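Example 3.2
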Amino acid sequence: MDKSEHNVTLQQLKGKVISDLEITEAAVVLKFEDNTFLDIYLDQEKQVIKTSTNKL
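Structure, written as tokens:
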């Protein structure tokens, strides 16, 4: 898997409308109207904030 596959850029998010938001102890997940999700979470091993996107 290409490491850049899960990088999130401003261009990917620009113009999207948030339809739902979930905040837990482990992550923040934003759902957009086009059924794309943005996950923001802490990598416990490396202690860094990471992001990923996926689409249903």
